[in-house]
Amino acid sequence: MDWKKLLSAKRWGYEHREIKNQDIARSEFQRDYDRLIFSSPFRRLQNKTQVFPLPGSVFVHNRLTHSLEVASVGRSLGRIFYTKYKEAKEGVDERYPYLQEIGNIVSSACLAHDMGNPAFGHSGESAISHYFSNGEGLKFKSEVTEEEWQDLVHFEGNANALRILTHQFSGKEGGGFALTYSTLAAIVKYPCAAIDGNLKGQGLHRKKYGYFQPEKESFIKVAEELGMLKDANHSDVYKRHPLVYLVEAADDICYNIIDVEDAHRLSILSPERVEELLIPLTNDNNILKRLASIEDVDSRVSLLRAKSISTLIQQCSQVFFENEQAILNGTFEASLIDNINPHLKEVMNKIEEISVEKIYNAPTVVQIEVAGYKVMSGLLEEFVPAYIHNSSAYDKKVVALIPSQYKNTDKTTYEKIRSVLDFVSSMTDLYAVELFRKIKGISFPSLD
């Protein structure tokens, strides 16, 4: 792959428009960032669970704050690579005009990376998948193709993000978000369809999948335009766009470190335990002296979080720089964070182990996952059959609850299911719970 093709300002839905940046305030890729941050799907992330239940008296991260922090880290990763590359090679800006924009491209992709995730974190994805694989949705298997069925039994937030950004929703302007091709490609961690993904041992690019069947041609169009490599063993599978590695690294850095900080704020991990985990990541010989000068416990943890993230940014950007050619050749088959300094990697493995044991299995986390599972399943049980059949008076009343933007000219069973999933996956945690309670008769709408 070649940076000259990989970095493109061509916009989805506006391919024939001449690329002539007349905005003196923003580059084309900064415009991507602004379009995302002012959008409704992005704002809804503030009421979607990251790990812990949405905050009460103690603030913890939600999907929106997580995405903003990932975007900040992603921008740094991109800028560091550009600076290293420019220092190592002459005439970079002349040969690759958009290389200096890598930080902005990565930052925009980071901002959008979780926009397709449903309510209640990963349990929301699992609930949608389970409804079709083992729930009432199983009865629709004979009405869809095998490719479409794999979309349904393996619901993937990453693929849903691409759909949100490119799909023509009813009543909306054509072109979706009209993002640049490079930003769109940098979001797709697994450049294949569901039927070709979810495979172990077939390469990192096929670990999951990156687009639903309706977006297949759209993704291929982007991939071909950018000169992304095809998998030698499968004509419809591509190797990752190189910037995906930086987006992935930014996400890995943030959730590993920030989850520890949130666990401290919720008293799941003691300050002493947090210091034990994070001090080895700070790469600062004076860190103990600095900590000793700070009395406030939260400030001590914040310092460790900042220093740890800084270390990991430097490590991951160096791995990306050193392996640039293998990444461009499509032969680099690991995440950046898996290739950092062995000692630091050992520390990260310990953090992951503690996170699984103490954080992800904390009672409050498990409770929200179980409740979310029931809510998402319950919503699908009502909306999917009603929208597919739409024959009884009850069906019509249920369908009337679906906003018009999600009602396209659906003809096939798969298209109808996809529209329901567009609606349900867009819900915030609070809205999903409220609607579930109302349609199940647990509570009633206010008559005010």
UniProtKB/TrEMBL annotation:
Residues 59-265 form the HD/PDEase domain. InterPro entries: dGTP_triP_hydro_central_sf (IPR023293), dGTP_triphosphohydrolase_C (IPR027432), dGTPase (IPR006261), dGTPase-like (IPR050135), HD/PDEase_dom (IPR003607), PHydrolase_assoc_dom (IPR026875). GO terms for biological process: dGTP catabolic process. Transmembrane segments: none annotated. Keywords: Hydrolase. This is dGTPase. GO terms for molecular function: dGTPase activity.
